[in-house]
């Protein structure tokens, strides 16, 4: 990786970093074709796409019972992976239970006003599983829905000749009601529009590669979605106290997700920048998934950057609006105070992003492509809708009547004004 100065970035380089789209735009047309076919042809199209993109001749699309069996088998074998899933699930559940909002009512001046929160009925969570298996994403997608009280949670995950038992067990442990072996854009379309086998849902959530993410953008409007959670990203904001090996480890970790992943380090220390670039190079060689890692590192949206000051580095981080922001610096809290745009922030040398990816409890389904400027990650709120409640006594209506009727008349809506006057006659 070569080191570039933030101040010397060309307009095209800045665009690649700040308007990164992880290849999603390029597959939009293909994805629309996939979505349309699933909408029109249902299971037939889903099976054809499974053959074409996953190389699997799918038997039964519904694998809910297989997930329960995989879970029971790991349990019978006292499998340590199931133990890890359970501990992670407990932490995710605990963190999300704190997010459940309380209904409230307040009375004053004869007005009783309030807000109530109710879960949606049916949610669908995509659990990725193309190049790697993602049992952790099953916990992150399903548990918040269960905590919110969603009545029916479906999961789709890519098909395989030998489905990953750990992913299936995690989906079951998380509390999914139905599991379908469908991957990619076709899975998102199946959840959005329904097929003979896959039940339609009210909201589709979850992360995935560029095809999954483009499909969520395509169905948005016909069905609710959480937000776009595409190929992973990390931005490390580091000063001269950071260990270059730790910074490099963060870049390598998120780079192994996808050739379209974006990984960046920005620092005011020129020596650190050089050392990070060197450590990344040394770390790519001979590793598993080296091709994926190399492609992600060479991405136009990745790089090691030198800033003239930590203030310039912070401004860069604000504009970048990373999915994951790791701050390894002496006064990390002071830097954090100046940051508003980030999906999840990891403070200090002992808080690797992997801790949040798997085990601490906060959700790892987070906005990519700068979405952190506009919304936060998956949470219990994602699965709730609110309604407001109001009750007025006669005096309270009388007190407000002038305001109501004046505004109604200003809008030319006489029947609105009349509905108030009638009650006060
Ligand atoms: N942002 C987040 O919160 C977050 C969280 C976890 C994972 N992720 C991301 O999820 C992604 C997982 O990607 P993955 O590929 O391993 O699994 P995936 O399940 O997202 O994608 C696999 C599917 O892609 C489809 N596909 C593959 N090649 C295709 C082609 N040429 N045309 C059409 N469709 C095709 C197939 O249908 C396959 O089932 C990674 O990008 C990872 O970074 C993001
Ligand atoms: N880093 C991913 C979110 O972008 C989540 C994940 C799952 N497994 C490992 N990592
Ligand atoms: Zn990760």
UniProtKB/TrEMBL annotation:
The UniProt annotation places Zn(2+) binding at: 254, 257, 357, 416
Q: What is this protein called?
A: Histidinol dehydrogenase
GN (gene name): hisD
Any GO MF annotation of the entry: zinc ion binding
Q: Which GO terms describe its biological process?
A: L-histidine biosynthetic process
As its record notes, the protein acts as a catalyst of: L-histidinol + 2 NAD(+) + H2O = L-histidine + 2 NADH + 3 H(+)
Pfam families the UniProt entry points to: Histidinol_dh (PF00815)
Gene source species: Halorubrum rubrum
Residues passing through the membrane, by range: none
Which pathway does UniProt place it in?
A: Amino-acid biosynthesis; L-histidine biosynthesis; L-histidine from 5-phospho-alpha-D-ribose 1-diphosphate: step 9/9
- Residues that, per the record, bind NAD(+): 126, 186, 209
Q: Name the domain of life this protein comes from.
A: Archaea
InterPro entries reported for this sequence: Ald_DH/histidinol_DH (IPR016161), Histidinol_DH_CS (IPR001692), Histidinol_DH_monofunct (IPR022695), Hstdl_DH (IPR012131)
């Amino acid at each position: 990786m070569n080191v570039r100065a933030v101040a010397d970035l060309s307009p095209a380089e800045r665009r690649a970093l700040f308007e990164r789209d992880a290849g999603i735009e390029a597959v939009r047309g293909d994805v629309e074709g996939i979505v349309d076919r699933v909408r029109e042809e249902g299971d037939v199209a889903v099976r054809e796409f499974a053959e074409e993109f996953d190389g699997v001749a799918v038997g039964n699309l519904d694998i809910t019972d297989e997930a329960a069996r995989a879970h029971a088998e790991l349990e019978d074998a006292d499998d340590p992976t199931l133990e890890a899933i359970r501990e992670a699930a407990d932490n995710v559940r605990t963190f999300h239970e704190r997010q459940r909002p309380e209904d409230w009512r307040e009375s004053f001046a004869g007005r009783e006003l309030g807000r109530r929160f109710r879960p949606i009925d049916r949610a669908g969570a995509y659990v990725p599983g193309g190049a790697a298996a993602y049992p952790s994403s099953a916990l992150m997608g399903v548990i918040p829905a269960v905590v919110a009280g969603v009545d029916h949670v479906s999961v789709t995950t890519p098909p395989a000749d030998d489905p990953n038992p750990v992913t299936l067990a995690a989906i079951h442990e998380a509390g999914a009601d139905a599991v379908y072996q469908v991957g990619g854009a076709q899975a998102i379309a199946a959840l959005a529009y329904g097929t003979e086998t896959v039940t339609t849902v009210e909201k589709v959530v979850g992360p995935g590669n560029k095809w999954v993410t483009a499909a969520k953008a395509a169905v948005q409007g016909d069905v609710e979605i959480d937000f776009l959670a595409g190929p992973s990203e990390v931005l490390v904001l580091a000063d001269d106290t950071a260990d270059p090996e730790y910074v490099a480890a963060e870049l390598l970790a998120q780079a192994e997700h996808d050739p379209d992943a974006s990984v960046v380090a920005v620092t005011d220390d020129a020596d650190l920048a050089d050392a990070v670039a060197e450590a990344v190079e040394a770390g790519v060689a001979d590793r598993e998934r080296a091709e994926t890692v190399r492609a992600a590192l060479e991405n136009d949206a990745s790089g090691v950057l030198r800033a003239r000051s930590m203030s310039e580095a912070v401004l860069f981080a604000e504009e970048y609006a990373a999915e994951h922001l790791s701050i390894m610096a002496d006064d990390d809290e002071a830097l954090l105070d100046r940051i508003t745009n980030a999906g999840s922030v990891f403070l200090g040398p002992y808080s690797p992003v992997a801790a949040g990816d798997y085990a601490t409890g906060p959700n790892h389904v987070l906005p990519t492509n700068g979405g952190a400027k506009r919304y936060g990650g998956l949470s219990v709120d994602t699965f709730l809708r609110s309604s407001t409640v109001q009750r007025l006594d006669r005096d309270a209506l009388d007190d407000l009547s002038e305001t109501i009727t004046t505004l109604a008349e200003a809008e030319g809506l006489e029947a609105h004004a009349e509905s108030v006057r009638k009650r006060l006659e």
